[in-house]
Design brief:
The structure is a homodimer. Chain A has about 325 residues and is an alpha/beta fold. In chain A, about 45% of the residues lie in helices and about 15% in strands. In chain A, strands 2-1-3-4-5-11 form a 6-stranded parallel β-sheet, with helices on both faces. Chain A has a 6-stranded mixed β-sheet with strand order 7-6-8-9-10-12, with helices on both faces. The structure holds a DNA duplex (30 and 30 nucleotides).
Chain lengths: ~325, ~325
DNA sequence: TGTTTGTATGAAATCGTTTACATGATGTTC
DNA sequence: GAACATCATGTAAACGATTTCATACAAACA
């Protein structure tokens, strides 16, 4: 691949002149400029970003590290981050950790070594030490969806409040025996569970049953099937995440239960299928786009002004009432 | 950030020794090794990948450029590529172009400047010139899902054959007035449309109606609504992609049509919702994981052996019969 | 004419690595 | 004890860019 040296040689100038002409800043005679341009075209020259980055460490590249790119929340997030970053002249590398802490750490390490300008991450429980290490190296970091520590800029929804609101809504529909299906090992599920229980307590109810399991579809299916086919089944089910809800919904179908008469159904996140099924499913929709944009903005601000103090931004989840919960009794 | 020089100084050795000790290849006295390790720990030293990459241009980084990371096909693809690459010691940068040819070109350019080891891309129609340019620069490229030219390794499913098979299946169910909803400006939709029409022709039928529109949910909704609410509606609808199908399905619901009695429904791709709705939707499932792995394998092969001739790999789509098409009349 | 100013260019240092080559020390072999 | 491996380390060049500093020439000014 042609380098600046080749271009310089071909155009009969020094590499300094070529460099100047490329960044078209300072004085380069029009005639020289043209001559260099010809050489560039002939050689198909492209400046080597790696060398540029080594020289003056400003990469204009952001990293987005997500646990599961297949999760619509994260893919939408990725898109939002990408879009906003682009308007500011930044590109985004997306890294998928597949929920694997080892991989997460590896990507974090890789990104710091790659000298990216900053990192947006939805950290796993185990990420904290590594994040703190990067923080010490003054690598700007924004945490989304989950908290990693006070020292990091963070953007997430008020999970507890949202869960309260959703639970209230189910209670208002007259459901009494409300069960919850929550992810385990998840900060987010934790917060949602709190809101769930607070709302019940406020109505002198308690959870009919709470199950926690790994946040995957099959696990959700199994857990929901067990709950719903017990001798004393719940009359409503709330799920803490899309994948869990997908599995749970399939369990409901499997048992041929009528929604919402036999069992109410509601969940967090707003996967496509909740609008395709009949009756459509009531959900808490995360303002994903907004989260992504906010995170990107925050990161760029920190890049510009590394010493600003960390902010924690909580956005509101949106309750989208559809038909999977009974109508409130007037 | 501490550099190798700092470590060398602190440990009282030359940078060469530090470098050797890090790559732990050649002779370094145990005692020296330990001394250096101490310095590394104290300084929190991490080798600078950018410098490494500049020195010996082997990045062990792959780029995956997709048009829509929100599309489950691509997110699953990303995961498959990521996973396979990892087993071979490669990391993957995922880039999202949002179906924008300008962005696509920019990422392609960026990746070549970043000296990635190779690129996997699902190219837009307009990508060809840029791809050829990169090809001239000897950057290994694998095209997935769509074709870009003979000179590129390519992995895709046999769309025409799969569409034939799907259409046959619908015909076998006794549907007669079969309409098609196909994406426009898409190589893939093109191929599928051919298979659709060939299958019909083979049964002396012709398409009841074919609409082509941008492959988004809302466009699918509008187009399907128009077709289904006409005075002479189809008795089955085949959609060429997940997004289109999502919109179309919502249109079916909106009109309260019974599936499969009033209208049969089938589509390409296997989004989650097709298994959640009742009756579940018959689909052609792409062997997405397999596609991703094959593409990654192919790319790595080409990286190792740049001169091998390009191969075109066609995988089979899998027909998944569910209940949205009438039972074959025996 | 001599000094100043503005424009156009080149030489060389620098970023953080790896590595070919050189050198020094130690031990082995005849 | 001379010759020779073997091991351990250092020196310096290279990768491809940017940028500071120096230089050269012209035009402008006194």
């Amino acid at each position: 691949m042609a380098s600046i040296k080749d271009v310089a040689q071909r155009a009969g100038v020094s590499i300094a002149t070529v460099s100047r002409m490329m960044s078209n800043k300072t004085f380069v005679k029009e005639e020289t400029r043209e001559r260099i341009q010809v050489a560039i075209d002939e050689l198909n020259y492209r400046p080597n970003r790696v060398a540029q980055r080594l020289r003056d460490s400003q990469s204009h590249i952001l990293a987005l590290i997500v646990s599961d790119i297949q999760n619509p929340f994260f893919s939408e997030l990725a898109r939002a981050v990408e879009t906003l970053a682009r308007t500011r002249g930044y590109s985004v590398f997306i890294c998928n950790t597949d929920e694997d802490p080892v991989l997460e750490e590896r990507y974090l390490e890789l990104m710091s070594q790659e000298q990216v300008a900053g990192v947006i991450i939805s950290p796993s429980r185990k990420a904290a030490p590594k994040l703190k290490a990067l923080h010490k190296l003054n690598i700007p970091i924004v945490s989304v969806d989950r908290r990693a520590g006070d020292e990091f800029d963070t953007v997430l929804i008020d999970n507890t409040e949202a869960a309260q609101r959703l639970t209230e809504h189910v209670i208002a529909g007259g459901h009494q025996k409300i069960a919850g299906l929550y992810g385990e090992n998840s900060f987010t599920a934790e917060e949602r569970l709190v809101g769930f229980q607070e709302a019940l307590a406020a109505h002198n109810l308690s959870a009919h049953e709470v199950r926690r399991c790994p946040a995957f579809e099959n696990e959700g299916y199994d857990a929901a099937l067990a709950m719903l086919s017990s001798s004393n089944p719940p009359d409503a089910l709330i799920c803490s995440s899309a994948l869990l809800a997908t599995g749970a919904y399939r369990a409901v179908q499997k048992l041929g239960l009528n929604i919402p008469d036999e069992v109410g159904f509601a969940c967090f996140d707003d996967p496509v299928w909740t609008r395709c099924v009949n009756p459509a499913v009531t959900v808490i929709r995360q303002p994903t786009r907004h989260i992504g944009e906010t995170a990107a903005e925050l990161l760029l601000k920190r890049i510009e002004e590394p010493s600003r103090s960390a902010s924690l931004i909580r956005l509101q989840g949106e309750l989208v009432p559809r038909e999977s919960v009974r109508e409130p009794v007037a």
